[in-house]
Each structure stands twice: as C-alpha cells, then as structure tokens.
Amino acid sequence: MHILTLGHDVLREKAEEVSQIDGKTVHLVKEMIQTMHEGRGIGLAATQVGILERIFVVHLAEDIPRVFINPVLKGVSPETSLYEEGCLSIPGIYADVKRPEMISIDALDERGKPFHLDADGLLARVIQHELDHLNGVLFIDHLSELKRKRIIRTWEQKFKA
After folding, report:
1. What is the pLDDT of residues 73-105, one digit of tens each?
2. Distance of alpha carbon 71 from its chain centroid, rounded?
3. How many domains, the chain?
4. Rounded to whole angstroms, how far apart are CA atoms 128 and 31?
5. Residue numbers annotated as active site
6. CATH assignment at residue 108
7. Could you tell me the pTM of the whole model?
8. Cys-Cys link to 56, which of 3, 45, 72, 153 (CB 3.0-4.6 A)?
C-alpha cells in the first residue's frame, strides 16, 4: 500500500461508512496494519491509502493493534492538552496540537463486532487524529493559519524540491 501525502485530494475527502464487513475488509485491515508498521506510525486511516471507507487502525507500543470501523465519537472531556503530533501523510513535520484529553468512542472491529472504548492519553489523541482523517481533516488544520502556512511551505520545500 502507498501512503498518500499532503496535497493529494483524497486526504481532504470524507470517508463513507462501511456497509459490509467481509474478507475484503479483513484483508484491507491487515494491509493497513502492515503499512502503518512499515511507516513506523502508530495510526493509519483508510483515506491515507486512498480508500474512502470509515476505517482506521491504531497500534501503540504497549498495546495490541486496534481496528475501528464506522467509528462514532460519543463524547470528549472538557480538559485539553497540547502534544506534539506528526502524520505519515506529512512526513518529517511535527507541531503541538490541542485536543481533549479523554474520549469515548463506539465502533466495529474487523469481525463486525460492536465495541465501546473510553480512552485517554496517547490512545485518545491517536484516535482523534485518525478520526479526523476520515473527515478530511489533517492535524495541521488545528493550528493557526500562520503556523499551517509555514508548515505547508516547509513541507513543500523539503519534499517537492
């Protein structure tokens, strides 16, 4: 699988709900996890590999790989924190992003089984980051216009030269 990078139109599109979870979905999830690991990432959304389906995967070092299909954010904490984020679709670029510290989410796993998860810390942040991808939002969209333009200019100079 090839990870799309900043400037690709698909990254700005909203993903569609998965209507049927089958062997094709299971295969896609396995490929996404492998691609995420190869890219040394901790999360990857289907939109990042050009597939407009509401699927993302997350794998933190101290945790098991997690699969989220048709995720729905059910709640967020009023407490927020700043944390440096990066993205496989904007390699080499990092910025502090303010996000809720805790979240509550419902989704389906790769077998189609519904689950609920309350998450905090890095897991909550990665889930929010990947959920943003499914809505056509990049982490740089959470920054001021000035910072975002500076990052885009830096990225273009670094990777479009």
Report:
1. 999 999 999 999 999 999 888 999 999 999 999
2. 12
3. 1
4. 21
5. 130
6. 3.90.45.10
7. 0.94
8. 45
